[in-house]
Amino acid sequence: MNKLKLATVWLGGCSGCHMSFLDLDEWLIDLATQVELVYSPIADIKEYPEGVDIVLVEGAVANEDNLELIKKVRDRSKILISFGDCAVTGNVTALRNPFGDPEPFLQRSYLEAADIQNQIPHEPGIVPALLEQVKPVHDVVEVDVYLPGCPSNANHIRAALEMLLMGEVPHLSGKLIRFG
Amino acid sequence: MAVKTLTINDRLVSARESETILEAARDAGIHIPTLCHLEGLSDVGACRLCLVEIAGSHKLQPACVTKVAEGMEVKTDSEKLQKYRRMIIEMLFAEGNHVCSVCVANGNCELQDLAVEMGMDSVHLNYQFPQRTVDLSHDRFGIDHNRCVLCTRCVRVCDEIEGAHTWDVAGRGHNAHVITDLNQPWGTADSCTSCGKCMMACPTGAIFAQGTTVSEMTKERDKLEFINTARKNQEWIL
Ligand code: SF4
Ligand code: SF4
Ligand code: SF4
Ligand code: FES
C-alpha cells in the first residue's frame, strides 16, 4: 500500500502547534511508518508538492506569503486541517485586527519598543507585506477539519490523525474542540 | 398552591404554577442551556440561549421567563434549537474579541463551555473585531469589554443582591456596553462597595480580579449561592 502523504504548514502562528505535534514523541515513529512527510517546516523541502493527502495548517493568514501559500496548499491537498486557534479563529495573531491598519503596530514594535537597530523591516521580495486584516484559514480557503486549541493538545492531534489514517474524516466534539 | 402538569421532551412533569419552564425542567433533571440566567437573580431573557419549542406556537420561547401552563408540550432539544443555539454562540464570539488562549477565564468560562456544548469547532460568521476598552481604574477589579456578552448579570447582582446598583447598560446595538455609575471609570464610582459580586456573577473573563493572568480567574459562584440561600431562608434574621 502506498503511504499517505502528510504535510504540515506554518503560517502566522508561533510554532507552538508544531511543538505540540512533536510532543507526540514515540507515536511519531508509528506515524512515520504510515505516512510520508512531504512538506513541513521540520523538513528541508522548498516547494509544496502536488497530491498531498493530509495537511495540518498552523497559524492565521497574516501576510502575502501566507495568502499565496494557503491557496497552493488548498489546491494540492485532499484533507486540510485547520490546526490550532490561530488557524481556526485568528487568535493572538489577529489581536491587531481591531485597530485596522498594521502600520501603528510595526511602529510600536520595531521603532518605539526596540532597544537597538530601530527600523521597520523593508525588503520587498524577501519580507512579505502584512495584510490589512489577519484572517482565520477558513475565511480564505475551504477547511475540512477544525482542530482548535492553543496549542492543540498532542493527544487531540493524535486522535484526529488516527481517524484520518483509518480513512474517516473526523467530526470532533467535546474537549477536542475547546478553544484556548 | 396550584400544580400544573406538562410534558417536557415527552416526559410528564409537574410544576408549581409560578414556576418557569426552566425551573420545571431543572427540577426534573432536564438540561436547558442558559447564559444570562443566574440562580437567585431576576430573569431578563436577554441571551435567548434557553429558547424552547412549545406545541401550538410557532414562536420559540425563552424558558427562563416563560411560565408553565397546564397541558403544555415543550421540546428543549430539537435539531432546530440546537442549530439556533450554536448560531447564538457563534454570534457572541464574532461580536466581541474572545482570545481564549490569553484570557483570565480560559478553562473557567461559561461561554467557552457553551461553545463546547454546542459543538462549535469554528465560527462561520465574520468576526467583527470591534474596538473596545479595558478599565483597570478599580483597586481590586478590572473589566475588559472585549469579553463582555452583555448578559447583565453584573447589573442585576449588584442591584438585587448587593443593593448598590453600580452597573448599568448604556448605548444601543453594537454600541451597547456596561457602565459604572454615571459612565465613569469604575475606580471613581462611589456607589461600588468593592464586594466582588459582579465578578462572581460574570460568566466570562470580562470582570476579573486585578493581578490574575491567563486561566487564573475562577469565579466563586458557590459564594453567591451561599448568599442567595441564606437570604431565601432568612438565615441572617435572628
Ligand atoms: S494556536 Fe497558539 S500555539 Fe498554535 S500557533 Fe497560535 S499561538 Fe501558537
Ligand atoms: S471570556 Fe471566555 S470565551 Fe471569551 S476569551 Fe475568555 S475564555 Fe474565551
Ligand atoms: S461584564 Fe460580565 S456579567 Fe456584566 S454584562 Fe458583561 S459578561 Fe455579563
Ligand atoms: S437564559 Fe433565558 S434568555 Fe438567557
What does this structure look like?
The complex is a heterodimer of chains A (180) and B (238). Chain A is α/β, with parallel strands linked by helices and 180 residues long. Chain A has helices at 16-22, 27-34, 64-76, 85-89, 103-112, 154-165; strands at residues 4-10, 35-39, 52-58, 61-63, 77-83, 130-135, 145-147. Chain B is of the alpha+beta class. Chain B has 2 domains: 3-77, Ubiquitin-like (UB roll), CATH 3.10.20; 101-218, Alpha-Beta Plaits (2-Layer Sandwich), CATH 3.30.70. Helices cover 25% and strands 16% of the residues of chain B. Chain B contains 6 helices and 10 strands; from the N terminus they run E-E-H-E-E-E-H-H-E-E-H-E-E-H-E-H. In chain B, the strands form 3 sheets. In chain B, strands 2-1-5-3-4 form a 5-stranded mixed sheet, covered by helices on one side. The two termini of chain B are 28 Å apart. Classes of the chains: A alpha/beta (180), B alpha+beta (238). The interface between A and B is medium-sized, with 28 and 26 residues. The structure holds iron/sulfur cluster (3 copies) and FE2/S2 (inorganic) cluster. FE2/S2 (inorganic) cluster (FES) is lined by residues 34-37, 45-50, 62, 64 of chain B.
